[in-house]
Amino acid sequence: MTDTRRRVKVYTLNEDRQWDDRGTGHVSSSYVERLKGMSLLVRAESDGSLLLESKINPNTAYQKQQDTLIVWSEAENYDLALSFQEKAGCDEIWEKICQVQGKDPSVDITQELVDESEEDHFDDMSSPGLELPPCELSRLEEVAELVASSLPSPLRREKLALALENEGYIRKLLELFRVCEDLENREGLHHLYDIIKGIFLLNRTALFEVMFSEECIMDVIGCLEFDPSLPQPRRHREFLTTTARFKEVIPISDPELRQKIHQTYRVQYIQDMVLPTPSVFEENMLSTLHSFIFFNKVEIVGMLQDDEKFLTELFAQLTDEATDDDKRHELVNFLKEFCAFSQTLQPQNRDAFFKTLSNMGILPALEVILGMDDVQVRGAATDIFSYLVEYNPSMVREFVMQESQQNDDDILLINLIIEHMICDTDPELGGAVQLMGLLRTLVDPENMLATANKTEKTEFLSFFYKHCMHVLSAPLLANTTEEKPSKGNNEDDFQTCQLLALIVELLTFCVEHHTYHIKNYIINKDILRRVLVLTASQHAFLALCALRFMRKIIGLKDEFYNRYIMRNFLFEPVVKAFLNNGSRYNLINSAIIEMFEYVRVEDVKSLTAHIIENYWKALEDVDYVQTFKGLKLRYEQQRERQDNPKLDSMRSILRNHRFRRDARTLEDEEEMWFNTDEEDLEDGEAVVPSDKMKNDEDLMDPISKFMERKKLKDSDEKEVLSGKGSLSGRQSPSFKLSFSSSPKASLSSPPSASLHPGSPGSPSSPGSGARNSPPTAAVTTKGGLVGLVDYPDDDDEEDEDEEDADSKEESPPLSKKSKLSS
């Protein structure tokens, strides 16, 4: 199939100056003998028919728009356009066109504005250029047609723009508009609407300067009120002159600045409200209008920034207690809009802007504003604060650390932010969510600076945990004094639960990023116990937040945290939540099982022992996952090593030999195997070279002692796996190793069916009568051959320890030379 990069739509411009879709196909460029040159070919994707065959003429002006559009004129009244599906395809064809014409592909128009091919239709550019009809009422229709016919061609647009500039034609048109409006000449007003709209699409800054001047802009807006497609004219001028009012919260002494603000507001209004939504082909034609507004805003910010008297007065009135509420509200909204304008600045200009605001005292002013009771004023101040934090969090951190040396904790800026978050009256806590995001940015070590003489991370985090953390955690501590959340357990107190969830999420972030600061705070204030109270909440999202907090702590595998958890039995609320959840298969069930599974897979020994010793009775009946039985198995293996350090060291030696697989070792083992007399081997025995063996007595003594102790414990142990002793696809955590005078070694799953040395397995036992053969690790039972499954998520070394204990056989005389497979 043809590459989608070359997929295009072919458009032609009709007599009504509307683009007609001629079909969809795939474009290519190749030499066409009939046309004697490189040509653009478009074949329909439906039947392969030829939609377009256009020779790339060296003098034709091709224009690339919006990265996916190529437009050109083939004749005076025949304009074409290719709309590409992908930018890459447009770039390829554009390079071909530029290659034929010898142009740089980086240009958007392939021909200079003066082109010989246009001289048949227009005079030379050095001459007076395009001649416009006289600006008279009777000629308006002719002017409108001329403007419409010039828009598709870049060259004609350029000549029309020059003619409009040189002859002062726009002012003449606006005089005609006033005449038509006085005479209520609706036809003339409709023609003027088309003309002014067309002049906008010429995309010329020089024309915009004239149209947006103080004396012309309202008449331009008036022309655009009379859209021919609407039954009644719009009332844009009435809105701008009567409804929209310019408020000078601080008197602006500079007339140029005041005029620039008026102009920018009106031009923005034209762009957003007056001009119709541009079509896909017109959108790029208004780029200069966007730029005009953009640079006006940059100029306004710069002029205000340079007016020190204005800014000084602004901040003085903001912080003055005598300022009335309405005035302060206007001042804060002005400052908010001022900061919003700054987002249009280039990075270096934005640096200077915020540095100026900082020098003028914006942060102390915000501190005063945030302490006020007016909710709207505080909301606007929060938006301003967010601009500052997103721009330069280090500047905010430096300010709050300096003020902490002079002020009480209650009036610190960060504590004010935390209090507003806690006291947010919005039922959905929209403001609290915004403020929590700002706090997270401030306490994030990733954006903190580290210099040679000081570390911002150390200084700020020490400050935050000393002066602010108690304010943040106060709602959590207040609502978790009992075993259940004081308020969070009520179905109707959703707002409190949302707030607690936000606080716990931020604490979870701190656990991940703050290491010892948060560790000291959690352990000293017993925060984890308080958070786990929330697992009893009826709001699942809050219980899950608490579980995420504990899971993040366990994931650190920090023994300080582990000892704290074990000392305070903090798995108890988790187990209770698991049991209270019952058999429901939901997020809480999965989150708790995943937590225990992590402890098992990562083999966190201290937590494994703690869980099994304290909560095994409650969890042993959970058999729809193997997590808890796996934890029990880990626990048994740990106890085995603790009871038999000599056996553990012997196994590590054997493992070291087993895992060494260099070529020399393999050759030695193979030679030993083939040199061994088969008669010396009992059925099921394997061989290891004698130089790798320890003395028999050294090997058998710890195993025999272990089996004696194990046998004494058997009567007190409960059955670990359900299924009445069958292996059921998973190794039992309590396999017994027994040495028999019989050549058959016995494996017994249930503790109650363990075999005594010297006695053959009971025929009725499902696990008895098993025989191991060296090539395969399998157990033969009455039911047939059952493989000992090696689960990949179990620790490899632990599995091999079990297989070693389960697969060793002894020949009939115990004193006979034992041979173990390597």
TrEMBL record:
Residues 142-637 form the Serine/threonine-protein phosphatase 4 regulatory subunit 3-like central domain. This is Serine/threonine-protein phosphatase 4 regulatory subunit 3. Residues 5-101 form the PP4R3 EVH1-like domain. Residues 671-685, 791-807 have a biased composition (Acidic residues). GO terms for cellular component: nucleoplasm; protein phosphatase 4 complex. Residues 706-721 have a biased composition (Basic and acidic residues). GO terms for molecular function: protein phosphatase activator activity. It comes from Danionella cerebrum. Regulatory subunit of serine/threonine-protein phosphatase 4. Residues 732-775 have a biased composition (Low complexity). InterPro entries: ARM-type_fold (IPR016024), EVH1_PP4R3 (IPR055236), P4R3-like_central_dom (IPR006887), PH-like_dom_sf (IPR011993), PP4R3-like (IPR051137).
